[in-house]
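Priority: medium. Attachment 1 of 2:
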């Protein structure tokens, strides 16, 4: 009888852990979608705030936000650590 109760308790605990993992995965996916949408909007409509126009003659341009791939890490950093 006690063995059956222990197995049932173990099954309930494993089910709860799986539900918690599913919630964590879904939260990560939702966060990724929100950051992606923000990246698309920022790259298309607010590009002037990401690219500095004051580049001196012969100086390398600031290339942190000249394409969509480089905007995503910048946005993720700015959303995580706002100034």
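Attachment 2 of 2:
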């Amino acid at each position: 009888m006690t063995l059956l109760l222990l197995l049932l308790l173990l099954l309930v605990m494993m089910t709860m852990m799986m539900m918690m993992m599913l919630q964590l995965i879904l939260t990560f996916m939702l966060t990724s979608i929100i950051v992606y949408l923000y990246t698309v909007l920022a790259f298309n409509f607010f590009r002037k705030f990401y690219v500095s126009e004051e580049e001196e003659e012969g100086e390398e341009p600031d290339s942190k936000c000249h394409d969509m791939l480089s905007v995503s890490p910048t946005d993720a950093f700015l959303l995580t650590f706002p100034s």
